[in-house]
Every structure is written in structure tokens, then in C-alpha cells.
UniProtKB/TrEMBL annotation:
Organism, as annotated: Toxoplasma gondii TgCatPRC2
Gene Ontology CC terms: Golgi apparatus
A GO MF label: metal ion binding
Signal peptide: 1-36
InterPro entries: Galactosyl_T_C (IPR027791), Nucleotide-diphossugar_trans (IPR029044), Ricin_B-like_lectins (IPR035992), Ricin_B_lectin (IPR000772)
Higher taxonomy: Eukaryota, Sar, Alveolata, Apicomplexa, Conoidasida
SUPFAM superfamilies in the record: Nucleotide-diphospho-sugar transferases, Ricin B-like lectins
The protein's name: GalNac
Domain Ricin B lectin as annotated: residue spans: 300-437
PANTHER family hit by this protein: N-ACETYLGALACTOSAMINYLTRANSFERASE (PTHR11675), N-ACETYLGALACTOSAMINYLTRANSFERASE 7 (PTHR11675:SF68)
Cofactors: Mn(2+)
Domain Galactosyltransferase C-terminal, chain residue ranges per copy: 148-210
Length: 441
């Protein structure tokens, strides 16, 4: 594959200055990111620096994995020049770190990408230690005994991996309807796992990601339309996640009318032709850390107060107080899931792992972990939604009976730092319209 040598880029920067170099990087990336990835190895992203021997580490890992699965016929074949042929259904990726600021030689891996997971909003989720613990506990992979061995990873960064051309072509490459970037890492990872292959991180193969320096750039350098990225991710969800796409839709903002999802017929036909496993299999075998909320016994969407036309909102905070904000009906910060069986109100934006609590003493509604017990602090995570009166009433943390203070959610029209409204707990009164909340899908 052809790419501009690093030394020539530094020579260029000496003449044209660092801003021109960064501008050149930006245009190479934007003009070619989506289309060049589909073109295979003709182009490469400009914001990565290879570690010496990165490729040989990947090929050695492919050889080792091929011997584990019995695909190598003999030792000589396993160590042949093109080791990738020994494992045709394998995809391998290296770790991602941060190179030296001006000299591309040292990679620092604190905060870099290792194994990569994701949330129900299809955002990257860095839980490498949790995945490692599961692999060691269950004895999955050679990595269970050797931390330097290839480790199974739920997904990978979308442009940093090695794969045979035959397997790449069989999988259909990237979705041709995707634009710019975002979503391709999910699509190729799902296809690899669910259609008979596997995806492993090779710790000894490393790549450096070059970030823009604040010394030369301030603020947002360029904008990427969020709707395009959301569309990419939703296309992947509707093809590969089956019924779980509904959960993704609850978290990801709605697409504008001028950006439809597009035709998915060809992608679904590929999935059926390859007899790929479903997403239930993926959750059970590859990514059990991602727990789906129970939609069968749930009310979902925005919680709208008709009197003020405001909705419950995280106000872009986490583990803070839940508020209300003028309804935008784009999911995201205003998406919630109320379990009729659990009586818990989960926050979709935070992967359904955080819940809305009631604090009777302060009459406020903090956000906390759904799995922890905060009753010792006087908080309760249990609610009763009364469909007849449209009220959300606080339950006692100990026995799930009606809280003795008889408190309900109530919207008030008062200016706060982030909203023209506020959310409080007040004595339940069915006649007060400020206490009426309806779920809007």
C-alpha cells in the first residue's frame, strides 16, 4: 500500500508550518475517510503512526491462532511468509496509543484503546479490565493465561486491522451507504463475529494516534454533521442487531426527515446468505457485559409534562440531579425507560445503568447507579407510574410501598442555570397538571 512517508511530512511542515500540515492531515482524512476505507489498502488515514514490527506481530498472532484452531497443517506452513492465509476468517487489530509529540517513536498507552466495547447508544465503552476478568474467569482464549496473547474484543476501531482479502470480500466490505466516519467499526465487527469469524486484539501490535495540539489549534477545527453519524450507526443496528435496534433508537437522536435510513435490502440479503448468527448469540458469547433492558415490561421515550411542554432531561450531566427542559423529542438526554416490573426509571443516555432516584429530604431527583442501594442516604430508586392520573409517585426504598411522605414528580416554571423549568418532589395531587407526565415514544 502506498502512503506519504512520515519523514517527508516533517520536511513539509518545516517549510509550510504546523498549521498547514494539520490542515493537510484534515483534508486527507475527510476526503478519503469513508470512501478510501472501502477501497481497501490504496489509502490510509493520516493521523496514525505505526510502531515498528506492528505487522509482524499481527501475523505472528494469526499464526498462533491458526495453530490453536487446527487450521495450520504443519509448523512450516504456520510460519510461512503469508501467515494470514492460515486463518481466513480472522480479523486482528492492534492497540492504539499516543505517540511522542514531535518524534513518532514512543507510544504511551495510558488511556489508549485496548479491547473495545460499546454502549446501547453505540458509543465506545472502555471496559478492558472487566472484559479481561471475564475471559480469565471463564478460561476463554489463550489470553486467559497469557495477557500478551491475542484477546477477543467485542468491536475494534474501524480502520486499524488486518484481514484476508477473501474474507473481507465475503463479508461485503463496508456499507457503501455510510458517509464520512462513525458506525463502520460496529458493522465490520458484528459481521466478523456473527458470520463465522473472530476478532482479536494483539497487545504487541501498536499504532499511535496523532491528536491535534492545543499549541496550534483552538476550538472545533471542523464540524461533522451528527445526523450522518447517527444514520451510519442506525443502519448497522437495523441490519445486525435485530429487535435490539429498538433500544439503540431510544438512545440515538432521531434522523431528520431529509436523511432517511436508506435501503437495507442488500445488507440483509448478505446476512441471510452467510447464515449469520443473531444478536442474542453475540450478547451471550461475545459481549455479555452489555445487558439489555427489558422492553416487554417497559414504558419508553420522553416523559412530557403537557402543562409546560417540558420533558425530563439529564441536562447533559451525569450522577447529578435530573431536571426538565423544553421537549425536543430527539431522544438522547430526554429518553427514559420505566420498568413496570422493577419500578425503576432508567436513563437511556447513560446506557440504562443509571436510574432516577427520589430524595424526600431535599425534594430533589438525583441520578445514581441502578444496582447500588442508596437507602442509607435516604434515597429511593422505586417509582409507581399511575396511568390513570399520569403521575410518577415515589415508593419506599425498603418495601416498595407508597412512600409515607406521599410525594410525586412535579415540574415548576422557574429559571435554573440550565433550563427555564425545574423538577421537584411535591405532595401528590392528581388535580395539579404540573404533576402529569406522559410517555412520548
Amino acid at each position: 500500500s502506498a502512503y506519504l512517508p512520515r519523514h517527508s511530512l516533517f520536511v513539509l511542515s518545516a517549510y509550510a508550518g504546523p498549521k498547514f500540515l494539520s490542515f493537510l492531515f484534515l483534508w486527507i482524512c475527510l476526503l478519503g475517510c469513508a470512501s478510501s476505507r472501502r477501497s481497501g489498502s490504496k489509502c490510509r488515514d493520516s493521523d496514525f503512526s505505526r510502531q515498528p514490527h506492528r505487522v509482524s506481530a499481527l501475523l505472528a498472532a494469526a499464526s498462533a491462532l491458526s495453530r490453536q484452531t487446527g487450521l495450520a497443517k504443519n509448523r512450516d506452513a504456520a510460519y510461512s511468509h503469508d501467515r494470514r492465509r492460515q486463518l481466513p476468517h480472522q480479523a486482528l487489530c492492534g492497540g492504539t496509543g499516543v505517540p511522542g509529540r514531535y518524534v513518532f517513536c514512543t507510544l504511551f498507552f495510558d488511556g489508549g484503546l485496548k479491547t473495545l466495547a460499546f454502549t446501547w447508544g453505540m458509543s465506545h465503552y472502555h471496559i478492558h479490565d472487566k472484559i479481561r476478568h471475564r475471559i480469565e474467569e471463564l478460561g476463554q482464549d489463550e489470553a486467559a493465561k497469557n495477557p500478551d496473547a491475542p484477546t477477543m474484543s467485542p468491536i475494534m476501531a474501524g480502520g486499524l486491522f488486518t484481514i484476508t482479502k477473501a474474507w473481507w470480500d465475503t463479508l461485503g466490505g463496508y456499507d457503501k451507504e455510510m458517509q464520512i466516519y462513525g458506525g463502520e467499526e460496529f458493522e465490520i465487527s458484528f459481521k466478523t463475529w456473527m458470520c463465522g469469524g473472530s476478532l482479536h486484539l494483539v497487545p504487541c501490535s501498536r499504532v499511535g494516534h496523532v491528536f491535534r495540539s492545543n499549541e496550534f489549534w483552538q476550538g472545533q477545527v471542523y464540524t461533522v454533521p451528527g445526523a450522518l453519524i447517527h444514520r451510519n450507526k442506525l443502519r448497522t443496528a437495523h441490519v445486525w442487531m435485530g429487535e435490539y435496534a429498538r433500544i439503540v433508537e431510544l438512545v440515538i437522536p432521531r434522523l431528520p426527515q431529509d436523511k432517511p435510513l436508506g435501503d437495507l435490502t442488500e445488507l440483509k440479503a448478505l446476512r441471510d446468505r452467510l447464515k449469520c448468527k443473531d444478536f442474542n448469540w453475540y450478547l451471550k458469547n461475545i459481549y455479555p457485559e452489555l445487558e439489555p433492558p427489558n422492553l416487554a415490561q417497559a414504558m419508553t421515550g420522553a416523559m412530557r409534562n403537557p402543562k409546560f411542554n417540558c420533558c425530563l432531561d439529564t441536562l447533559t450531566t451525569k450522577n447529578q440531579e435530573i431536571g426538565v427542559y423544553p421537549c425536543h423529542f430527539e431522544h438522547g438526554t430526554q429518553a427514559f425507560l420505566y420498568g413496570k416490573d422493577t419500578h425503576m426509571l432508567r436513563v437511556a443516555e447513560h446506557n440504562f445503568e443509571l436510574c432516577v432516584y427520589g430524595n424526600p429530604a431535599k425534594r430533589r431527583l438525583p441520578e445514581r447507579s441502578c444496582t447500588e442501594d442508596f437507602s442509607g442516604q435516604g434515597l429511593s430508586r422505586y417509582w409507581l407510574y399511575k396511568e390513570d392520573t399520569k403521575q410518577m409517585q415515589l415508593l419506599d426504598a425498603e418495601n416498595k410501598d407508597i412512600h409515607p411522605d406521599n410525594l410525586c414528580m412535579q415540574a415548576v416554571q422557574i429559571q435554573t442555570p440550565k433550563s427555564p423549568f425545574d423538577l421537584v418532589l411535591r405532595k401528590c395531587d392528581p388535580s395539579r397538571q404540573e404533576q402529569h407526565f406522559v410517555f412520548v415514544p
